[in-house]
Every structure is written in structure tokens, then in C-alpha cells.
Amino acid sequence: MKIIFKIAKTELQKLFFSPVAWLILVIYTFQTGLAYTSVFESLVKNKALGYDLWDVTHRMYGGQFGLFSFFASYLYLYIPLVTMGIMSRELSTGSIKLLYSSPVTNLQIILGKYLSLMIFGFVLIAMLGVFILFGCVNIVHIDIPQLLCGLLGVYLLICAYSAIGLFVSTLSSYVVVAAMGTFFIFALLVYVKSLWQEIEFVRDITYWFALSGRVDTFIRGMITSEDLLYFLIVIVLFLAFAILKLQSGRQKVNWMVSWGRYIAVFLVAMVLGYFSALPKLKGYIDATYAQVNTLAKSSQKIIAKVPDYTTITTYTNMLAPMSFFTQPMSFKNDVEHFENYLRFNPTLKMKYVYFYHKADWPDLDRLYPNLSDEQRVDTMRNVQELSFPVVPHHKIPGKVDLAPEGFRTTRLIETPDGKKTYLRFFDDSKYFPDEAEISAAFKHLVADLPTVGFLTGQGERSTFDATDRGYNIFSQDKTFRYALINQGFDFDNVTLDMPVPRKIRILVIAEMKRMLTTAEQKNLQDFIAGGGNMMILGEPGRQAFMNSISEPLGVRFLPGTLVHAPGKYTPTLTDVVPTAAARKLYWYFEQIGKLNGFVTMPTANALEVNGGKGFAIIPWFVTRPDSFWTELETTNFIDDTARFNPAAGEIKGSFPEIVALSRSVGSKEQKIIIAGDADWLSAGELNMQRKQQTSNAAIIDGVFSWLSDDEVPIDTKGVDPIDNSIRIGREGWKIANFLLKWVFPGILAITGIVIWIRRRGR
Fold first, then answer.
1. pLDDT of 194
2. Do residues 279 and 342 lie in contact, with contact meaning Cβ atoms separated by under 8 Å?
3. What is the rounded CA–CA span in Å between residue 442 and residue 420?
4. Shortest CA distance to 402 belongs to which of 318, 306, 489?
5. Is residue 623 within 8 Å of 559, Cβ to Cβ?
6. What pLDDT score does 718 carry?
7. Can you give the residue ranges of every domain in the chain?
8. Low-confidence residues in the chain, pLDDT < 50
């Protein structure tokens, strides 16, 4: 060990007595300071403007523009400048012969040189420590474990780069060639993940060997055994290569033996890497306070019940939009969507089937108007040089019929005992399903989830109606993320000419247009008396029909239409906001309140809560105070102007528009939602684009979570971060900004110049 330390000390003296190391430190510190102060200054300004800050640690250090991300993305520029001469200098000056003739082993030479690089890397980390210390002082409740995790990842990246640079430096006596060779290896380790992705076994190896993205896991606050072992294996691999290179300089051996040694070391590394990447052998540590890299507790409970060796088969239609997201070249990126699920159930199997069938893709029809489906696929495969097999839809193994899915790219989750459910992609900016949708699909396999019944027969809103007034989107549109069918619910249409089926857990009655018969009324009352959950949605002009259902429950639809004084929106457009009780009940509603969100109702009734019917009634969403009234006289809101007239019996005030009723029925709690409008769940309102984003889609989760006794949709919200504020103000920041950006690099520059001058003087 003494020899290793002496070699390391000698290398460090050479390094820090030259201007190269100091120049790297100064440039690196100045560049880092510019990036750090730019992000922190935005926090200071947002605080001064009164905006809420959120998850400051991640934003400053782990986000896209965070300190660790910035440093890792530019690190490859610095390390080759440090390593390029560490062995090339020995080769060019001939001093390598002195080392060969001295009682020093190849292992000691390489480890000594590498130890000096590790110490220099620690100096770089110490420079980062200044910015971290500043954050610890000025960020309230800073997430220290996340910072330490990020630092570990960055340091491992430095060590890996250094090992690669050290090996390349043994290959040439020219420092420039060594530097360029190191850059080439870095580029190769980034590019290798795109090679031979169609071959499963080779794909696993090439993707594992890829360097890009490895440190990102650490920066996010997660330590995985795979990434940790990756850096250690890569470091040992290139150090072993360097030792073998020195050995070949000392001892002349047959080239086949020499290459055999390299190949043997490489194969051992690949085998270790392959096994370290197996889901069953992976370990995880989420270092973040809010556990943002871990499944929510609700999802963990679900995945624990999923049978082992459940299969997720992705059926990719090459003639449907977005097919490239699930093709072999994107395999690893696609699998990462299930990484957290594999963590808790490593037996999950991913399969892929590629097929073609005409789908809804107008652009393809425009580009290839005169080609058959087979010709279109052949053209795409030839142009994109795709080699994986693609079969027509009718030849899909297992005879899976994707016609009900519109021949879109979709996933089929199947348990070993044959239970199946679909997991879909969506027509929004995310495209991929989130944790809520994935967990809902898994839960559909292992639990008896609620069936929502939609009443028909009295002119109610239909789940098959895709027009603006219809309920198709919110109930069964497979491309809409928040649709009930994608959140774990089953649904069915119900008539009251017979008793409501026992499987119906939630009954939706939306804008009934005629009175129920005596027999229908009895069947409905039996459902209510039995504790069935309901959603009752009214509409102006239907008060008499709806009150026959709601008044026995303690809520009445008031006459007239709810309006407000003319403004930028039509007078009948009602915007309602969550009450304090609603915000306390569910985080969905709390989030709407925090963002000053609202739910829009194009034409609404005012509700009157009478109570006294055995239900606890709590208003969830109400109109804004003193801005709305019940208009009884005006019916043409386009040509006429509505005016408040109390003499006509019109009432002005803040009205409840969505109320929640609950009571105990036997051993269960019965829950009923009554709303003064049926349009807020219609296709027209969910698709409406307004200047301010409405919360109509977001409220669906909260409402149906309550009605389903929190079974679905899956609540995937974790713990809120607590690092949501900073201590420093604008005046203090001016001083700190100057110190971090200019004074700190300046001190390093002066120190380096002084040491260099003194060294030259000696």
C-alpha cells in the first residue's frame, strides 16, 4: 500500500503543480456557479413575487436544470484532460522503462495512478460541496439524503470516467491521442444501447453496458444495486484492461493469449452485469423524503396480490400512431415504466407482438393513399431498416381480437390462471399510462371492482353518445385517461323495469326526462333502501322529474336557471369551487383549491339542502358568493339580458352545486352525490378549451373514489415534500450571487497561479 500511496502522491504533485488541473477547477467552478445561481435566482424572484415554492431540493440539485444534472452532463469534457497524460507521459518520456525495471508491480502502478485520479475527483466533489453547503443553509428542510445520493452518483461517474481515461492513456504515448481516444470510448458507451435491439439477449447486454442515464437514478435520489454494481464493474474492467496493457509491455506473449485475457475479463464483466440486471437480484433504496421513486402504498398492496409470472404483452400496430414508442429500439425505455412494479414483483414478464391492421391514422392515409396495409408496412420497414417480425392482425399468436380496441397499440395483462385486462395508451401529451392507470389494471385482476350502472329508459344521458351532450368520453372512451373504464371501473346500462342488479355498486341518473312509473319508482327505492351508492345529475327544465328522486333524500332542485351578470362568459356558465370540507376530504379537491381551479357547468340548477331525511349532507362545490341567482323570467340568454328580480321569486347568493350525502345502512356507509348540472361530465365540457384550465376531468377521480369507498381510482399520491421554502431574500442573494459566481472561482484561479509561479521559481 505504501508504494501505491507514493505513486498517487507523485501524480498529484505533478497534477497540481501544472496549470492544467487548476484551469480545469476554475472553469468547472465558474461554469457550475453560472448554472447554479441561474436556477437559485429564479427561486428568489418567485418567492419575492409571492409564488409558492415546491420540492426545492430536487429543483436545485436533481431536476433537469439542477446542479448534479448539469455537472454530470459536462463532466465528460473535463476528465479526459486530466487522464490524457497520466500514462502517456510515462510512455513518451521513456520513464515507463524505469517503472518496469523497479520492484513495482503493474497492479501497484495502475492503482497508484488511479488513486490520484480518485482524489482529484474528490476535489471536484468538494467544489460541489460549496454549493451544497449554501443550499443547506438557505433551503428550509433540505433533503440531505437525496443530496448525498446525488453526490455518490456523480462521484461514481467521475471514477468510471477516470478508469476509462487511465486505460486509454496506456495505449498511446501521445496525450492528444489519449484524450481523443477517451472521448471515443465515452461516445461508444452512449451509442452502444442502440445496437442490435431486436435480439433480446444481446439487447440486455448492450443496454447494460451503456453509460448514459446511469447517474440519473442517483440524481433522482434512488440507489439501485444494478447501477451501483455497473459503476464498480466498469471501473474494475478498465483498470484490469490497463493492467493487462502494462503486462504486455513487460512480457512478450502470443497475441492470441493477450487478446484471450482481454476477452476473458470482458466476458466476466458482462456475466456479472447480466445477473446484476435481473429483476430478482436487484435491490433498491429510495433516499428521498417523499419517496418519489417508489410506488404509492396503495399500489404496493395491489402488486403484492398479483400472481407471480403475470405477463404484460404489448401489441404494437405498425399502422397506428406512436408505434415507435414500443418498438425494439425503445424496449428498455418502455420497460422503465414498469420498473417500480418489477421492484415489488420481479417475476412480471414483458412480451411484445408486432402486427399491422388499418387504424385511425389520417396522416398515413394521406402519405400512402394507394397502398395496401401490407405494402405500407413493407415501405415503413424498408425505409426504417426494421428487421423484427410483423404479422397481420389475424395471425397474432393466441388469436387476440384487438378490434374492440380500435386496433390501437395496447397492452394485455394476463395472469397464469387466465384472467385478463387491457392497459391502454392515451391521446394526451403523456401518452403512456401513469401509476394510477397501471395499478387500476392490476387491481382489476385481483379484486372485485365496482360496476357503475347508468340509468336508461327515461331519456337520460347515454354512455354510447359521443356527441357534446353524451357521456361516452367520461365513461368508456378508451383513449381518455380519466374515463371510468381506464380507472378500474366496469360499467353497464340499467333499466328500472326490473330490480337493479346486485353487481351495480354505483347508479348514475343523469337528466331524467320523464317521471318513473310506480314499478320503476319501487325498484329505485329498493336500491336506495338497500344502501346503493348513487350520482344524481339535474338540468334546468327537469326539476320536477329529478325532485321526485332527490327530495326524499333531503335535496331539492330549485326552479329556474342559475345565471350571473353578463361578462366574458355566457350568463348561464356556472363556475363552482371546492368548499373547505371537500378540500379536507380529498387531496384531489385540495389541489383544485390550491391552484384556484374550478369546475364549469354550462347550464345548472341551484340546489337547496333541506336535510332531515337521515343523511348527513355536505356541500362539496359551491358558486362564488353573491354573483349568481336563480333566473325565472328569461329563457333566451342569447338575445335577451337576464336581470335579477327578487319580486319574481328569484334568489341570489352562494348556492351548493355538488353535494355529498351519506348515512349508515346496516354495516356499510351509503354515499350519494347530487349535482345541479349534468353537462359538467359531458363530452362537450370535457373537451372544451378555455383561457383558464378547468378541473372537470380532475374532479372525476375524487367523486368516484368517494362513491367506490376508495377502491378506484387508485390514490397514488405520496407524501408531500417539506422543502418548499428558502431563507435568503433578494438583498442577501445579491451578495451570495456575486460570491458564488465570481469570488469563489477567482480564489481558485489566484491559488493556482501562485502555486504554479512558485513551482516554476523552484
1. 65
2. yes
3. 9
4. 318
5. no
6. 85
7. 2-288+729-761, 297-435, 448-558+603-624+656-707
8. none
